[in-house]
Design brief:
- Keywords: Membrane, Transmembrane, Transmembrane helix, Transport.
- Belongs to the SLC35F solute transporter family.
- By secondary structure, the chain is mainly alpha-helical.
- It has one domain.
- The chain is 77% helix and 0% strand.
- It is built from eleven helices and no strands.
- Helix 2 packs antiparallel against helix 10.
- The longest helix has 29 residues.
- The protein is globular, with a radius of gyration of 19 Å.
- The two termini are 31 Å apart.
């Protein structure tokens, strides 16, 4: 939940494609934590791959500061801070992947059960924290990300937002189930590597719909 919060805050401040590309650095954190906590051996080509990911993340971070958006898209609010939040979130995500692999390997828990427990914990935590942040920050900052009343008004007043929210919930459910299955039957590092592949599709759609302008440094990261 901490990782999701940091990533969503970062997404608000930077571009969607940069958000996805920077998430690729979770491979590095997962690989390092796998060595430390799971005692898994990483070979030379693993370390070379991690170095290339670090180089790519650096390039993308630089590219995000040069992006101005498409013809109709506004520039990012604060790409530097957004990038830092997204990269920081990957530490928590990598921790989650490694812990999940440890638990699934030790207790042989079915992925569906693990997903249900994670969802229950996340739902209860969100229901508990939302009112706190609303009354602490949201009531004094209308239409901000902490304004719970405004968020629910927009959710039910806009069919597009409601449909996209429901679609996101369904999509994330399948995403987490398949992700945990990969972790259980393969490894946390494999999951983080496969997860990074969606970066290409997000970047392509951002260009097709004109949400962002083409930046050569961003393309270099994908290569």
């Amino acid at each position: 939940m901490t990782a999701t919060t940091l990533m969503n805050l970062g997404l608000i401040l930077t571009h969607a494609s940069v958000y996805q590309m920077l998430r690729g650095c979770v491979v590095v954190f997962t690989g390092i934590m796998s060595v430390i906590f799971l005692k898994r051996k990483q070979y030379l080509f693993h370390w070379v791959g991690m170095f290339l990911v670090i180089a790519g993340v650096t390039i993308v971070g630089l590219a995000s500061t040069l992006m101005t958006g498409g013809d109709d898209a506004p520039a990012a609010k604060n790409p530097v801070l957004g990038d830092i939040l997204i990269i920081s979130a990957q530490i928590f995500t990598a921790t989650q992947f490694v812990v999940e692999e440890k638990i699934l390997g030790k207790y042989d828990a079915p992925p569906m059960l693990a997903i249900g427990l994670e969802g229950l914990f996340g739902g209860l935590s969100t229901a508990f924290l939302m009112p706190i942040f609303h009354f602490a920050i949201g009531v004094n900052d209308f239409a901000s990300m902490f304004d719970m009343k405004f968020a629910f008004m927009r959710l039910f007043d806009s069919p597009a937002i409601l449909i996209s929210t429901i679609g996101s919930v369904i999509s994330i459910s399948f995403f987490n189930f398949f992700g945990l299955s990969v972790t259980k039957f393969m490894s946390a590092t494999s999951r983080s590597t496969i997860d990074a592949m969606r970066t290409l599709f997000v970047w392509m759609f951002s260009l097709i719909f004109g949400w962002e302008a083409y930046v050569f440094l961003g393309a270099a990261f994908l290569l």
